[in-house]
């Protein structure tokens, strides 16, 4: 997180777009009452889960989290099952990104909208242990020599760049090791402009940034694929109200899903494949 300020800005920009797209009538309200049940849930016998309005692909498919399709609904239903809830007992509510992490009572038990776990946010809300760590992704544009690449070997003789001092830059050197060396840029914006102008053939960014750039900023933007796992990515956690009595048991549920391989399987299903295939 601290090594990738521009990536963080882009992720924040994504959140800003989400905020701009949100209607004023969203059901989430950080200041809303959380009456609570005896066992700590917002509603007795229900597991109330917050997401964005709208919620975007591939994190949520077709803005319909109740379908269970998409990485984050799949995680939410898996956590619910770990806590002993049936799928029919999962209730979805909508909040903006900022409402979810603002101080105050919550109308959800957990909320997931790709919230990076940071000390600043942890002053206002609780986080579960991480359910996902961002990977590094190679992206390009249509017409680039990299557009037909399907493997790391295909990238070695191309010009691949990233912002200096980032996990993305380290991943180029360690995972691709291009013949011409990693092309360095001061910011992700500089790298994006170099890709648009053809100065480089591809750039490496983290997964949320890759979805944002290829979906919203780059004409003909294309995800080539995810690089093999590299340490240092942002960690996403489930958000709970500060001091929630559920934090420990939700974290235990996430830990169990990580240990038995469920989280990796869900990430492969919903964030890999056609969306962002794993390169080898």
UniProtKB/TrEMBL annotation:
MF term (GO), any: ligand-gated monoatomic ion channel activity
Domain of life: Bacteria
Ionotropic glutamate receptor C-terminal domain segment(s): 46-273
SMART domains per record: PBPb, PBPe
Pfam families attached to this UniProt entry: SBP_bac_3
CDD domains attached to this UniProt entry: PBP2_peptides_like
Residue stretches making up the Solute-binding protein family 3/N-terminal domain: 46-274
Record's signal peptide: 1-20
PANTHER family reported for this sequence: AMINO-ACID-BINDING PROTEIN YXEM-RELATED, MEMBRANE-BOUND LYTIC MUREIN TRANSGLYCOSYLASE F
Name listed for the protein in its UniProt record: ABC transporter substrate-binding protein
